[in-house]
């Protein structure tokens, strides 16, 4: 019911049902009025047939004759003479303008539906003629049958058909929503296939595709520019670094040599930035997938963690590695997964105060996580830190280039792994969830 097409179908069926009910209701009211008019016309004719009697005895005889051959369930004839004698096929009691009837005998019962009556004073008495309201009851039953046999199946068929059609439209909307979600999550190659019918959803799908094509082209152009800049500048920067190192070696101890050393370090930092940008571009280009093989996450975690244990010991950190006894196999590039883990461990050691805690864990379900006891990352910043060169304000005074988590995100995306940044309470926990 949250789907707009389904709601529209239900609303349309409701309108059809209301129109049908209204039509039946008007027809029933009209037919009921006509039936009542016919009953009153019958009463007038019956009364007219008795008005020819000139004396009470003749009227009584005529009423008795008609009552003998008439079923009281259809018509009641009663003559109440001024002598208090009653003649007819039922007993009648007058109470002002109201008339009450009771059966004379059990074999001739009265109508259960009530009567419409006419009371007139004729020839020394009161003549009462009443017609049963059973035709009105049968009319109501007929219209109820029409409602059940006609309206209800029509509503059910319309509702079922509308629901099927609306559900088909809802599925198309869901597919378009899925394409938009994939594009929003970074899969710019996602395309909508709702382009064949020429209806509104097809036109929306075509516009989504045009938007995706333009966005993919713009992103690819930006990526290519970034790659070209990184590639073109890396070699000159490396030469500057070598030249500065040579200059540092030739200068005597003093301020000039210190400046050359500082310049060399900055050049090396710039080279590392361009190297990381190139690597991210290569990973996003899909070249790493050619090297995918079955990889044991536990073995990768133990190998990388062993490299950082000495640094953690020097800082007096509690460095723990939790790996299952059985292999946890995923498909991917072991070197890239190891690099992602190394980046996460370096970030954890860099932002955790000395004496803190860093935990590396491999889950049997194909998860790889690194948690620390540092300050963590505010929830509003967690998506931003995955961007290239983005750094938190408090991290601008610490070493780094803002590409570590961006590289991890690129590696995760190339492996189809979900990347999640959460609260370690205290600290940050980064989790990679690989597919089996």
UniProtKB/TrEMBL annotation:
Residues 228-436 form the Histidine kinase domain. The chain crosses the membrane at residues 143-166. Residues 167-220 form the HAMP domain. One of its GO terms (cellular component) is plasma membrane. PROSITE patterns: HAMP (PS50885), HIS_KIN (PS50109). Keywords: Kinase, Membrane, Phosphoprotein, Transferase, Transmembrane, Transmembrane helix, Two-component regulatory system. It comes from the Bacteria. Its main location: membrane. InterPro entries: HAMP_dom, HATPase_C_sf, HATPase_dom, His_kinase_dom, HisK_dim/P_dom, HisK_dim/P_sf, Sig_transdc_His_kin-like_C, TCS_sensor_his_kinase. GO terms for molecular function: phosphorelay sensor kinase activity. It catalyses: ATP + protein L-histidine = ADP + protein N-phospho-L-histidine. It is found in: Membrane. It is an enzyme of class 2 (transferase). Its EC number is 2.7.13.3. This is histidine kinase.
